[in-house]
């Protein structure tokens, strides 16, 4: 009987587990969703929630996320804006259970990022006034 066990070990050492969390989190932030096993999905949910929990200082959050995920400042600032767009107590990810994989019947789950980045407006450039010969 395991009491007070807070971490999901996923059959890995601590370093390998942290590397797995970082890799899954990077893919989630890049693509907005990913497909994995339900155990990994549940473990990833807590990791992402901790990343998106913001403080008052945006620069501190950018540096923290940038160092944890080993990404650039621009990508980290987008993640910080995702975290700030969430209301208090709102979950950042949704786990959707899928059908089992046909090859080995392993259970699958899709992890979706609920916070969306605000769409950047496309600037409309005027057509050039070059004259064409002809």
TrEMBL record:
- Region (Disordered) residue spans: 115-134
Q: Which GO terms describe its biological process?
A: translation
Segments of skewed composition (Basic and acidic residues): 115-124
Q: Say which domain of life the source belongs to.
A: Bacteria
Organism phylogeny:
Bacteria, Candidatus Blackburniibacteriota
What is the designated name of this protein? Answer: 50S ribosomal protein L17
Q: Does the keyword Ribosomal protein apply?
A: yes
Q: Which UniProt keywords apply?
A: Ribonucleoprotein, Ribosomal protein
Q: Which GO terms describe its molecular function?
A: structural constituent of ribosome
Q: Give the family this protein belongs to, as stated in its UniProt record.
A: Belongs to the bacterial ribosomal protein bL17 family.
Q: Which PANTHER family match?
A: LARGE RIBOSOMAL SUBUNIT PROTEIN BL17M (PTHR14413:SF16), RIBOSOMAL PROTEIN L17 (PTHR14413)
Q: Which GO terms describe its cellular component?
A: cytosolic large ribosomal subunit
């Amino acid at each position: 009987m395991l009491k007070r066990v807070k971490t999901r070990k996923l059959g890995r050492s601590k370093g390998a587990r942290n590397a797995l969390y970082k890799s899954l989190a990077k893919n989630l932030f890049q693509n907005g969703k990913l497909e994995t096993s339900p155990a990994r999905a549940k473990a990833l949910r807590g990791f992402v929630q901790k990343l998106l929990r913001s403080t008052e200082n945006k620069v501190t959050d950018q540096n923290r996320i940038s160092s944890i995920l080993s990404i650039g400042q621009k990508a980290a600032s987008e993640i910080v804006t995702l975290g700030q767009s969430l209301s208090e107590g709102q979950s950042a990810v949704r786990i959707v259970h899928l059908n089992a994989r046909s090859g080995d019947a392993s259970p699958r789950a899709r992890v979706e990022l609920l916070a969306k980045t605000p769409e950047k407006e496309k600037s409309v450039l005027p057509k050039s006034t070059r004259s064409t010969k002809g």
